[in-house]
Amino acid sequence: NQQMNSEKSTAQKQTLNENLARLNSPDACATCPAHNAGNLLKLGVDMADWDYVIALAGNPNTGKSTVFNSLTGLRQHTGNWPGKTVTRAEGGYSYKGDRYKIVDLPGTYSLLSTSLDEEVARDFILFGQPDVTVIVVDATRLERNLNLALQVLEITDRAVICLNLMDEARRHKISVDGRRLSRDLGVPVVPCTARTGEGLEDLLEAIHDVVTGKTVCQPYRLKNESPAIRRALEKLVPKIKAAYPDLPNARWVALRLLHGDERLIEAVRSGELGDLNFLAPLEPERTSAIRLQVCS
Predict the structure, then answer these.
(1) What DSSP state is assigned to residue 47?
(2) How far apart are CA 174 and CA 105, in angstroms?
């Protein structure tokens, strides 16, 4: 019995060492999931049986639901976001041996949190940190749709643009240069017609390339702030990073605070921003420091 226990202990140690070696290998970070499993669970998304999570974002009437249905088939279910009346749809698929969960975010025109739908979508991308956010845009209405796309790219650097409704664009004699758009936005752009299946295989490949690190996104971000805003950011961003070290995009949060985003200001005051990020609420004096900086 002692010999058997010794052999079992040795085998367990060997397995542990092998797992640690894989985690510390140069290729480990390239394929490790980027999502925050703890925050996702708090947001109502259980990743126990999945490798990666994909957020599906887009304006209403861009064919986002058709993309979702085409990728997931019958493997989907609906419910509400925790504590919200907003409906959440989840589904999944397998691709090249990996299991992907897709969360269909509410259709919104922005992430400025002026509505409950926008708040849900923003919080999921900001705090859930999905492995990829697929932004569905209407190829016939790019100017309108890119507003949301640019806002998403301010929050995450792991995104794919699904240029949907290409059949409608062709019917209206609209030509879209997907490669030029990809170069300008710094993320993959995949032309699709979800209702016919056109481009969906390319979309799956693009998602896979981003989550595995084969494609490294360098999203375009607007930097047209006034000198006064830049000076304020230089002071405010370090305070936010000190208060919330694990916050994925302190600069974006700082910009929203400076723009008077009541939802985020209240989240800082109440400590909810820390709760969402699984950190302790701010000490009163640190909250005041951030609030005074915003007001100034």
Answers:
(1) -
(2) 28
